[in-house]
Design goal:
Length: about 500
């Protein structure tokens, strides 16, 4: 039985009425492009939360026929999607990760792109489902979103296999989310159609199928779920692919490494936990006067990016520190740069030496940031040292008498820092009166001076982007996301 052989139909054909208040415009336009190119594709699993996926709140699980791969990737590149690289512990065969951006909402869309029907089972074992061609014959159009999705009977069989595979791979339990998803799908299944699909896939129809479905739908029987999933899964044992022994060793290593990092992460330095940008990492700095909103904006940008991209926070102000995935990292020199009485006393004793220690620490931080960039991660810098303006904006402090040894060494240190500066600098431009309103406890004259001098800072070879930070914060955040996406 074939419900839909060509999923490339228009929205009017599907009768879908898209909810513009929820579904991102980017996902709507991506769907339209794929249909226009007559691609064979579908949102193949997790369709109970398809709406959330198109809102940018969870992954879009898209299956693309291998013959359409080049066309599909051309569409993604034309739409400025960024190709991602998974960490080795999360890599799957036949799967790619692409990240898109919705300019209206500022949300990221993660395409978990499959070119094969595969799922992980056991330690470094993968189950390849030999159902691809038949799967594409069992599609329908989702009436709410217009996306091609498998009919309930086909999606149920895929979910049953995934449930048993995940139990072997992870823990011998079925997550509540999957239980509810299976229950919902089975409530839509027609028995005769289910038997026809099983026949088309050369599967034996499970014994007592009607009773099993009734126990799951009516009584939420978890044992029935486990039994039914096992009956389907064990018919596919010939399709299990075992990875290399080295892959198993890597899995073992990463499993216990992550457990270790949860307890000791703040002492080990930044560790890559999320996906990285295949095109390369970036060091990105946000600078501006007091009251421009640097720290608030940095925190929200970090939260936005770490949805999927490996991103770390570097603070380059008077009390420099690094934060990675919520951990404020330990530093043996941290006691020099805090507001405790001991630190204040040391700074008083150190005099000019303190400022040399401060820029030296920032140089070491920048070296670490550059290593993360080389590993294709992102580093967001709150403030950034510069040498054009003396005395403030994290610039040189010891240049009142330029002939002293301290002044010469400080200039040398700042030159060393600026030679390997940021890739992108966002200048948060804000009128002095607005900045003063936001920071009433600060010196108004100093704020005015900072606002006036910001435009005169060059930041070397970095791409400099001016942001009008005097507007309402939500507008500033959205524009920053848009500009940042353009330079990634």
């Amino acid at each position: 039985m074939v419900l839909l052989t060509d999923p490339s139909v228009s929205h009017s054909d599907s009768g879908a009425e898209l909810s513009r208040d929820h579904i991102t415009r980017e996902s709507v336009e991506l769907l339209a492009d794929c249909k226009r190119e007559h691609l064979r594709f579908a949102h193949w699993k997790g369709n109970s939360h398809l709406l959330q996926s198109l809102e940018g709140r969870s992954d879009i699980e898209i299956l693309v026929h291998p013959n359409c791969r080049l066309q599909f990737e051309a569409i993604l590149r034309r739409r400025s999607y960024k190709k991602m690289q998974s960490q080795p512990r999360n890599a799957y065969p036949g799967i790619e990760d692409w990240l898109g951006f919705d300019p209206d909402t500022g949300r990221l869309l993660h395409l978990h792109t499959h070119y094969d029907l595969a799922t992980k089972t056991g330690k470094e074992k993968f189950l390849h489902l030999p159902w691809l061609e038949f799967f594409f014959q069992q599609l329908k159009i989702d009436q709410l979103t217009g996306w091609p999705v498998p009919i309930p009977e086909m999606e149920t069989l895929v979910l049953l296999v995934r449930i048993h595979a995940n139990m072997l791979h992870d823990k011998p339990v079925i997550p509540i989310v999957k239980q509810k998803e299976l229950q919902q799908l089975l409530s839509q299944v027609q028995l005769q159609r289910f038997r026809e699909v099983c026949s088309g896939l050369q599967l034996e129809v499970p014994a007592g199928l009607e009773v099993e479905i009734n126990n799951i739908v009516q009584y939420h029987s978890v044992p029935a779920m486990i039994h039914l999933s096992a009956q389907i899964y064990h018919q596919l044992s010939a399709s299990i692919i075992t990875a290399s022994p080295m892959a198993a060793i890597k899995t073992f290593y990463y499993k216990y490494f992550l457990k270790f990092y949860k307890h000791a992460g703040r002492f080990t330095g930044p560790v890559q936990l999320k996906k990285t940008l295949l095109a390369g990492g970036k060091v990105i700095a946000l600078v501006g006067s007091d009251g421009a909103g640097k720290s608030t904006l940095c925190n929200d940008v970090i939260k936005w990016l770490t949805f999927k991209i490996d991103t770390h926070y570097f603070y380059f102000g008077k009390r420099p520190f690094i934060k990675s995935y919520g951990w404020r990292l330990f530093s043996i020199t941290a006691f020099l740069f805090n507001d405790r009485a001991v630190s204040k006393y040391f700074r008083k004793l150190a005099g000019n030496i303190y400022y040399l220690l401060l820029i030296h620490k920032k140089i070491n931080m920048l070296r670490l940031a550059n290593r993360l960039r080389q590993k294709r991660s992102l580093v967001i810098c709150d403030r950034f040292p510069q040498k054009d303006i003396l005395g403030f904006f994290d610039g040189p402090k010891l240049q009142a008498n330029t002939n002293t040894w301290f002044a010469r060494l400080e200039r040398k240190q700042f030159s060393l820092f600026c030679q390997n500066g940021a890739d992108v600098v966002f200048k948060l431009q804000v009128p002095p009166e607005i900045a003063a309103q936001r920071k009433p406890e600060h010196d108004n004259k100093l704020i005015e001076k900072k606002c006036e001098n910001l435009s005169g800072i060059s930041f070397g070879h970095a791409t400099v982007i001016d942001i009008d930070a005097g507007r309402p914060y939500e507008q500033v955040l959205l524009e920053t996301k848009r500009k940042l996406w353009e330079v990634l």
